[in-house]
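Open question from group meeting: does this chain pack into something compact, or does most of it stay loose? Before anyone orders reagents, we agreed to write out a predicted structure and look at it together. Recording both the input and the output here so the notebook holds the full record.
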Amino acid sequence: MNKILSNSIAAFALIVLSSACFAGDKAANLTIKVSGFLNNHGQVIANVFRSDGDVMKIETVYLREKGKIRNRHAQLVIKNLEYGKYAVSIFHDENGNGDLDHNFIRMPAEPLGFSNGFKMGLFSGLPSFEKLQFTFEPGAATIEIKVK
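Structure tokens returned:
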């Protein structure tokens, strides 16, 4: 009887400790669903920024993820991302060179998309971390971005 009781106590302790470990998780996978592609050429590239990054400077990218475009949609997974505030810019790297190409007046020549529903336009101004930021927290495992 004592052996059964001690095994039960050990199993209970293991369950309690395991759930406590999972409750304290500080990271998870973030899924980015991207739509709006006009074709399946090239690749999609996501640049992830933290609050100390300037979304207009490639040098401040925290993480970069690349993926394939299928049926004019893409899905990227940022694995084991710590919870916190982030901003994401996406571009359709149509020629597959790994860079956002620009035209002769330095305007982006490839389709772009941004987190937090930001759309570049005449009155929106340039993208900034504040305009693109979202909070990645438990239960917020997916964001959607449309490129234009």
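Observations to bring back to the group:
The radius of gyration is 21 Å.
The CA atoms of residues 28 and 80 lie 5 Å apart.
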